[in-house]
Amino acid sequence: MNPFSSLKNWLPDFTDLRRxxxxxxxxxxxxxxxxxxxxxxxPLPVIWLLGKTQAGKTAxxxxxxxxxxxxxxxxxxxxxxxxxxxxxxxxxxxxRFLDTRGLGERAYDPDEDIQYCESQAHLVLGVMKAxxxxxxPVTCVLRQVRARHPTWPVVIAQTGLNEGYPPGQGHVLxxxxxxxxxxSRLPADLSRAxxxxxxxxxxxxxxxxxxxxxxxLTQPEDGLxxxxxxxxxxxxxxxxxxxxxxxxxxxxxxxVHDLFARTAHPHIVGHALAAAAVGALPAVxxxxxxxxxxxxxxxxxxxxxxxxxxxxxxxxxxxxxxxxGIAYLARLLGRELFKLVPYLGQSxxxxxxxxxxxxxxxxxxxxxxxxxxxxxxxxxxxxTTLRAIYTHALTSGVAMLQSERREGLPDQVTP
Length: 415
Ligand SMILES: Nc1nc2c(ncn2[C@@H]2O[C@H](COP(=O)(O)OP(=O)(O)OP(=O)(O)O)[C@@H](O)[C@H]2O)c(=O)[nH]1
Ligand SMILES: [Mg+2]
What we know:
The protein is 51% helix and 10% strand. By secondary structure, the chain is α/β, with parallel strands linked by helices.
């Protein structure tokens, strides 16, 4: 098959999307089924949080997802007797957090949770309040987990550092924990506690990497700057021990700056991954993609709190124009094709469909953010800028989808 001749068949135009957006007859059940099919194909990185009650697990989820707009509290769903999970973002998730309940409160038998996690990709994130030295319930489970799964990476966050500061003292800046002499640069009590906690755990069994990361996630009214002390180090540790680019998935990168864009980013990635997954499915295929795109645009409008009705929709699609970037995407995919193929056991058609569907969804999302932000702020919308954002995002969308494929994920999640 000549890869270029059939390429057109796999490239989207926005006819179906326009129809779906302007006559919102989206069959929710069909869409749910489509998204469920996507999730089956789309392995989800799982972060398993292990820590005593009030250790700061939820605070870490909030910091990593970066969005106070996300309603973490209501999003958790039970999965075992002692654990619950939270897929973020809920509709088209890019990551799953698994939150263990009751560690340290009663006899906790991790077997069921370990079994539940067994088939899933993994990062175990231990959470310990720095000044709480009674960490045996946590260290004990960490040891059991690593004895069963010697290669699973472990990151342990030591939280609430300021509880070990003398009154009135602020954080030690710059963040000292990447230097070997950090114990001598901290208040003595805190230093002793951090070292003692590490000694309690000792060396974990197995060969997987493990890292300790002191953090302090405070509220502005605590008067400690920065309020996300150590968060960058936590990201660095997660990046160092896992293959998945969680940071890119969640949008913690520097180019995703304002809060709305930051909140929107994982929704865009999640829907792009879902579109890529269904785009390649023989049974659903390209027909399922516009519904996912329509859903993404609705979600984004809700994030930006902009009404998403006929006028806005028509205006946005009008700015975008028909077929925008299609020729560009065709060239891009043509060029990237031979890089993609060795990583997939799929037909070329499925590769086109997946990549085109995913990249276009990603680009639509990024262009919509520009549009919605401008509407929100009452700013003039510049068609050239909007199209440039769209075209640029096609490139980054293709790159994102390729890196997902290349890195692969060790295991599949089947919710
Ligand atoms: N100073 C400081 N406070 C923190 C930190 N992490 C969490 N907290 C606070 O500690 C309290 C408990 O934090 P959560 O994140 O709810 O703890 P959790 O482990 O999810 O607790 P459970 O869900 O009850 O098991 C909250 O009031 C947080 O604001 C931290 O790193 N520093
Ligand atoms: Mg919690």
